[in-house]
Structure formats: C-alpha cells, structure tokens
Fold:
Amino acid sequence: MPSRKKKSQPPVARPKTRGARATNPALRASEKRAAASTAARVTNGTDRAVPIVGVGASAGGLEAFTQLLRALPTDTGMAFVLVQHLDPEHESVLTELLGKATPMPVHQVQDGMPVEPNCVYVIPPKANIAVWHGTLSLLPRAETHGQHMAIDHFFRSLADDQQSQAIGVVLSGTASDGTLGLAAIKAAGGVTFAQDSASAKFDGMPRSAINAGAVDFCLPPQQIAVELARIGKHPYLRMAPTTPTEGLPPGGENDLTQMFVLLRAATGIDFAPYKRTMIQRRIARRMLLHKIENLGNYVRYLQHNRAEVKKLSQDLLINVTSFFRDPESFQALQKTVYPQLIQQHSPESPLRVWVPGCSTGEEAYSLAISLLEYLQSKSAHRPIQIFGTDVDETIIAKARAGIYPKNIAMDVSPERLRRFFVKTDAGYQVSKPIRDLCVFARQDVTRDPPFSNVDLLSCRNLLMYFTPELQKKVVPTLHYALQPGGFLLLGSSETVGGFADLFSLVDKKHKLYAKKSNLGRMATLVSRTAPQVEGPAGAKLRADESASGWDPLKEADRLVLSKYGPTGVVVNNDLDIVQYRGHTGAFLEPAAGAPSLNVLKMARGGLFLALRSALHKAKKTKHPVRQAGVVISSDDVTRLIDLHVIPLHPLEGSSALLYLILFEEPDRDAAAVRAAPARITRQAPAAKTRPSDRLRQELTATREYLESLLDQQAKSNEELRAANEEIQSANEELQSTNEELETAKEELQSVNEELMTVNQELQNRNLELDQVNDDQSNLLSSIQIAVVMVGKDSRIRRITPIAEQVLNLIPSDVGRPLGDLRLNLNVPDLSARLSQVVNTLSSQEFETQDRAGKWYLIRLQPYKTRQNTIEGTVLSVVDVNSLKRSQERLRQALTYAQAIVETAREPLLILNAELRIQTANPAFYRMFQTSPAETENIFIYDLAGGEWNVPSLRQLLEEILPQNTSFENYEVDAEFPRVGRKQLVLNARRVYQDDQATPLILLAMEEARPKAD
Structure:
C-alpha cells in the first residue's frame, strides 16, 4: 500500500479548516469573494483554469528572476507568481525592475486579484500570498523569530488549490524556504524545478529541495524557461485532477498490467488494487517529465530503466505530510479521545497508538507530543507506545532518524520546538525522549498482519487511494487492530463505508470513530508476514580501527605467542568478549537467561571474584595485573591457575581499549585432581580444614574488595553528583544561550537575505541612475544653452559648460551660493528672484546685458522632483543678441518707412506674407474714413465688409505678385461702406528687408481719372 500522508482535499470543495485559511479572517473573506466571482477562474474560452507557476527566490533572486523572464515566451498560457524575501520596512521596486525584463505585464499582487494568462505577479512587502480558486489573496505577514517562509506558504496554497496544475520553481537563495512547498506540489501531481548549483548565486534553497527529493528538474533559469514553455502546451496541465482514463495518453490495459508487474517485482507492492484515476495521473506525470507520449513506450522505458521504476513507485506512494496537520483534529483528540484513554488505563498499562502509512513520521511524532502534553497538563502518568508503519523502508529510516528541515517552524510552535526538538545543522531533530516513544517498521497494511490492542489508530488520507474492494479488506483489519472502545481517526474525505456495524461515529466533522464491542461480524485476516519492528535502540557496532593501522587482534597474537601461549580471551571496555584464544570451556561457560558475551557473567565458580578484581585494577592502573593461586571448580574438577589481565593500548588518536585475559596453569598434571568421594574420606584431619580455610580467605578478600568498592563508589557518587549538578547548571545555561544564539542567527539570516535583496535592487537602481546621469551629463554638455541648477538654499548644484563661459563660472563654484558670485551678467535682485520662484511656483523671464553689452534672455523655472516637490530653481540663459539687434534694425527701418508712408499723399497699405494689413498711412484713413483699430491685422479680403474680396485682385496678390515683383494700374470699382462707390487704380510691389527672407507687400491706390470722350 502506498501508505503516505498527504494534504489532500477534493479538488473543488476545500475544507474550511486548512491551515492558516481556517484561522485568518482576511483569507476567509478573500475566499468568499473569489468563490462568488466568475472572474476567479480564468478560462480562455474553456472550463479549465490557467496553470499557475510559483517561482520562489531569496538572495541572488533578482538576477535569476530576470534570466528566467527574459527566456520565457510571452504566449505560454500560464500565470507566473514571483515570491521573494523582501524587506517589510521598505517599498519594493522589484515590480518595476522585472517589468524591464519581459514584455509580459508585471503586476504587484493586490488582495482579490484574479490571475490571467501570460502575466507576471510579484509579492508585495510585508505580506504573504495565497491562492484560492485561481484568485490571489494577501495575508498579513506573521511575526516570526526566525526565517520568514513566504515561499513555502504560497507553494502549499498553490498545491492545495491547483493540484496537478501547480508548478513550483525554486531559484537562488539561502536556507531551506520552498522545500516543503515543492514537496507538496509534487505530491499533488504538479511539476517542480530547482536552479542548478552552477548557475545559482546561492544554492542553499535549491540544494535543500533537491536533497529532500522534491525536485523533478534541476536546470539553469534559461533552461527552466524552455521546459515551462513545453509543459505549458502539454495536455497534462489542461486536465482536471479527476480526469478519467480516456483523458490520458493512449495505452491499453495490457500495458498497465505489465507496469504493475514491474513495480511489484521491484518494490514488492501490488498497485493494481489502487484507484485507477490516481495511478493513471501519476503515470501521465512521469511521461510528461520524460517527454513520452505513448504508454507502451513508457512501459518499454521502464523495462530498461530500473531507476525510473523506483521513481514511479515513489510518485505512486504519495509521500508528503506535516506536523500537526489540521490542528482542529488534534484538539478533538484532546477533548474527546485522550480523557477516555486515561480513564480506561491504569498507570502501568501503556497507551498504544498505531499510524499506518506514517511516511516520514510527522504524524506519529505529532501524536506523541500531543498525547504527552495532555498527560502533563493533567499530571497523569501513562506509558506510551506509538507504532508508525509504511511500505517504504527508505521512508521508515527517515522517520526513525526524526530529522526535518527548518521549515517545520511553519507548523510547530516555538514552544514545541524548544521542548521537543533539538536544533541541528540540517534543521531540527525530534528529541530522544519523544523518539523513544515511537517504533517504526515496514508494513503493508493491505497484506501484513496488523498490530493488536491498539487504543488509537490514525489512518488519515490513506483509504482514499484504495478501490472500494480494497477498502472492504482493509477496514476490517483496522477494526481488528483496535481494542474494544478504541478510536479510529480518518481523513476529512474518508469514511468507514459499509462497515457502520463495526464502528460508531464519535465526531462527524473530524471523522473520528469508535470500535463497537458487540460485533455482528469479525474481520477475516489472511495469513500474513509479521512486520519487523525495530526500536530506536539498535545493536552497537564495534569500531573499525583498520584506518589507524592498529589491529588489536594481531597485537594479542604477538603477546601470546612471544610470552605466554595459554588459553585466554580478548574483551572490550564493556567486558564483552571480542575473541576467544584457545579452548576456554574450563574457565568460561554461557550463563543462564538472555545470551550474553560478558566475561564476568560467563566466569565459572571461583573465577568471578578474582577476575572482577583483576579487571578493576587493570582498568584503573592501565597496567597488567596478575593474580596467582586462583582456584576454579568445574563439576568434579578443581584447577589452580594464575590469572593475567593485560591492557592492549591503542595507537595515538584512537579511543578503543581492549584487555587480554589469560588463564595460566602452572603445573597442569598436578592441577587437575579428581575429587573421588572415597579419596576425600581418607584425607588427614588437617587436610579437611583446607577447604574452609580457603573459603575463609576468599570471604575475607571478598569483604575487603567490597569495602573498597563501596568506599570508591561513595566517593565517586559524591563527585559525580556534584559534577552532575554543575553540568546540569552549565547545560541549562548553554542551552539557553544556544537557543538565543540560534534565534538571533535565524533573525540575522532572515534580515541578511532581505538586505541582500534590497542591495541587489539598489545595485540595479544605481546602474540605472549611472546611466541617467551619463545621459544627463552628455545632454547638458551638448546643448548650447547656459543652464544653472540651484537648490532651495540658492547653492549651485549643476552647471553646463556654456554657463561657465556666459556667467563667468568655474566647476569649483558648484556648492556655493549663486548670489555671492560676481556674474558676467547684470541681474538685479537675483537671490530675491530665486526665492520668489521657489515660494510662488511661478516662472520668470527677463532680458539683460552682459558687461560687453550682449543681450541674453534669462528664464527662472521651479526645479520639480518626480514626487512633484520643489527642490530649487533652474536658471537658463539664452543668447538673444542677434535677435535683439535685428529687432532694433527692423524698428529703425519701420520708423523710417513709417515716416515716408505718412508723408505720402496717396493711400498706402503694407501687407505681410499672409495678406494681413500691418499698417496704413493717414491718406488711407482719410479716404476711407476708418481708423487703425479697424484696419491693422485685418485680412485684406475682409476689409470694408469684403469689398476688397475681388477674384481678379486675389489672383494678382496670390499668383501673379509672388512670381513678379510688382503689378500696376489695376482698377477696382466698388461700393465702400462710408465713402460710397469709388473707382481705384491699384499698384503693388514686394519690399524685401535685409534680415528677413519673407517680403512685405506695399499696396498703393489712387482714384481713377475720368476718361476723355
């Protein structure tokens, strides 16, 4: 059975008690808005949601983000949500920076924002992101003492919401954020990526995810973009999680059967009875990863690739879990189950808990912690036995070790981390007292016999992967494992099915059942293989000293052969025999009871006291010890031996210490004496006392030895007690200091990551500012206008090269007040003018002359920032000397012409190129009884009510006159408003000025003379 724990809910109807979503009102509100909005699911004309790609990064992430976005096509049909560790105290410019890396729209996430295809969404500072029905929601960033796990938070939400359509990418970053999230996405059937170490600036986050087995592709960002573009077009992402067989790549039932045979041969697990939909989707996912379109081709690939068979089995064994998953379920246990268990058990009777499908052990350890907390809160004492089983031995080994990444801080409170976990380099390890409560074993709940007399059986999200037929087989097995009144805890989408006669419902919301004692039927258990249970303490392995070059056995051989040659044994520091030398049966024999190699337990009568005393002295002095005249009795044989204990000193740098024990018989012929009864009765009276004397001597020696041992033990106990108190005190201080240092380290690491992100953004902004400054410097250097930028304090901030020449400035004048400098221009009240511009936000413009008499136009404008604040004044100086001189000459010419025109007796008009009247002489005003106000700047054709709008005159002025310099004697007969009908003769000439390319038109007129008859 792929007995794995998984965060699994039905794909549409999510339970309301999922993690943070259950406890955060803001998220619940956003979920309601999303569920009510038809825009929450982006469909592109279909009924399927847009695949969402979650991309997480930390330190070095801006560069990786940029590389990924630049390589991505703009028509993948997917939405990209970028999550980075940002400084919560500062506004982020990440959206602006990434907007320059891709043509796709880049948005900063806002609460309730629906995702759209081919768009990029960026996390804002001081917030977490979650996704619900395709809508992004913002959650307040929780105050933590360690690293902020924003990536894991979003990835888990993404896996919950999108299921197999979720895609996760972990890029450059330190620590381990994203590892648990990628594992959740992979378990949901999604696809996961991690940046390779060669291209990542910081490979901590990618390496953590890879080591956890949560990554499908390990590639540089550019190659990740290529794979995303391919996967985005694949049908796998467009299928709903419950897509039936026909929606999968083609393949027959025979191919599936062959695949099941391969899997069973490699793993011993028969996947055929499991739900076909789940099996097929997992197979389709593996085919997607390997770019295989046909199921038969994939079967052939499996036949030639045993590693892929293993990976497929791991995909089918949905391996994801977490500590205290669904906290409300644990609250229900403490409220309903634990009180009854305490009442049903005496203080000596153990509470037995079984977790089938325990995966990496989080569920079992969570139950141990929860149960222990409850017992402590009630001041109750009960032995606890928790059994965790799974079909995968590799997973069981991880559960036994109890080592988990730092990300578990998302699920485990700081108080529980402090009490029940030990900080390690890899993250956290469950403390030894908790691990000692849990026993992990390999077991297939569908085939192997169950545990018995279980009080609580947690089987959450396991039955949902079984077919109804297999469930009918497993549920009675679970019933059999429980003792009467025992409790069964199932997943939120699971029930006991048709076995309501075996269980009574205790809590419908949390799927908590109790075993019925009056059974209508018994569970039928087929013959199964018992699980091999292994506790936390295993057999100790002996040290291998071959690397140091010292072989204690060879050393023992050398000593024995060169000096002694008697029978003996070699023992270690624990007095366990590691080698027999010769026949030792006369001196040693196996002791009754449990098998043991302890030399003292195996010592024959008479040898024990002497051997223990000699070993004690040898251990204490580290020198050889000899005891002569030791009498050993074995059945009807008595031996007199000399006992030798020789320490075998290791080489320098080694801690192993062995002892060579030799049993030497000085006179073997005289030592062995048959103690026949008849012979004993004929011994002399003096000889009869010898055994009593010998016993008295042994008793005296034993008493002295025991007194010595007691004195030493009392002294040692006192010293150990004092040392233990000092060590405990020091250990508590060190533990407290270590916890503070670890907390400070995590906080500093989190702050450092955020600062690195800010620093990278600032570096990019500095590059942009450098480019802007270069552009500005080149622009100011190239324009031929004198420009001076002045701050609010009237100090010069920047000047152009032309300004240095015109105003008599030098580069070192930057920073000095402009009003204190002696400028080349005469600008009265310059400081007052600058202040007025700043205060009134108005511009000023005036003309002035330099000392040489040249004319300049000075403009004073407010200096505005992008935030529309005034920070000073911009002073620009334009050379208008030529224009001024031309205007003066024109004025003089006009004065001269005006004098001539005014003295003429004939009416005259001066027209510009647009045929508007610039001026007229007094004779014109008198003839037509008009004024300058009614004449000047009037279109000639509009003059006198349009009487001058004569087609022939228009032709002369617009066509003939531009080609000729003049025309003469043009007669006009018209009715004028104030003077009546007049017959006029017109003469016109173009008049050129020296400094103007466009000529004026001088139009003269006189009354026509009557013609002679």
In short: The first helix runs from residue 19 to 23.
